[in-house]
Amino acid sequence: MFVDPATPAVEYLENMATLHPQVSKEYMDLSRLFSAKLWHQLTLAMISFLSDNNVDKSNHMEFYEKVVQACDSSLNPESLAIIASKVADSLAESDNSSACAVFETLLETKKEKLGTGATVYVRSKLVLLKLKRVEAMGADVPESHSFLRDVSSTLEDCEKKLMQLEGVDGSASVRSAYYEASKAYRKLVGPPELFFREGMMFLNYTPLETLRPEELFTLATDLSLAALTGDGVYNFGEVVNDNPILSYLDKTENAWLMSLMQAMAVGDVAKFQEISQRHAQDIQKHVVLVTKATTVQEKITLLALVNMVFERPSSERTLKFDEIAKQICVAPDRVEWVIMRALSLGLMKGSMDQIDGTVTVSWVMPRVLDVEQLKGLAIRFGEWAGQVVKEKDYMMQETIFA
Hints:
Elements: H1 6-19, H2 24-35, H3 39-51, H4 60-71, H5 77-92, H6 96-109, H7 111-137, H8 142-164, H9 172-189, H10 192-205, H11 213-229, H12 237-240, H13 255-266, H14 269-278, H15 280-284, H16 287-291, H17 293-310, E1 318-320, H18 321-328, H19 335-344, E2 348-353, E3 358-364, H20 371-398
Helix pairs in contact: 1-2, 1-4, 2-3, 3-5, 4-5, 5-6, 5-7, 6-7, 7-8, 7-9, 8-9, 9-10, 10-11, 11-13, 13-14, 13-17, 17-19
């Protein structure tokens, strides 16, 4: 006798509608869509249902086993991965092992169906759960070392898979999941510059409205600390001017950190020093800022020099050492070292005349600009265009036509 496999799932949904009148409509809608085999609409409804805070999360696993697994072969692979992730999240706080089992079973039983994109998504979410287990145990525990090696290997493999998806199939949600896992790993093991890179990539693929306020606050704080202390991170405009993430520090206990980042972005040494002195106690609370104080001070000095060069017209980029010393607030005998450091890091290109005490800059690091800097650039473009017209008119007057 033929038995429709949908029957138990529909019966379960109808029964739950009776037991939970506050979400009865949601259960009945799911039952109707399941009976009609409207898989796309059912997928969207299930994701919405599992995201609903009014639904008792203790029932998520049973829902997954009796409803989702009854139709998983008809679902889009990536959608199935997202649904499994929501179920695992409902288990993670109380039972990390069971949450991991949801992903591990899915990878084992649906390996062929999932495909590359959904597999990367599931494995990335599994990495997040394993990292939470490491945090709970402590990173110095021998078992944690094993977990971290496994996580590192998984992320490397997922990164290769993502490269295969370039321009093909990899959706934003897959990349978001990967970079979320990668930044969590880098936050745990470092270095800060790699955490900063992965964090910014995560923001490129993740709508901010999908994150909780506390997640946004933590991410804004972590990115700021990584930018300030990470080696090779000099384009602060990428965070300050090109992404709204820092606004989530406004009117919080870390608002001073946002101000510090803004000072860095424009190379304002005086403002940086004023904020540092006023919030010395807050800075002491962040060990990384204390241990890397020299690195941070060097950074603001170099960015002050870069900003000084940038604000000058290209025809006036021969700077005297004494002018530089005054602008970037360093002793005159330190200017030569600062210039050499900036040249060696590739922040600018040019030549230095030690006898005349000048440096001529031919190129300066591209940056993401704020509104005021863009206005200044527009004025300089206008001046340049006017100069081009004058030169053209002069050439026309001086040209002798045969």
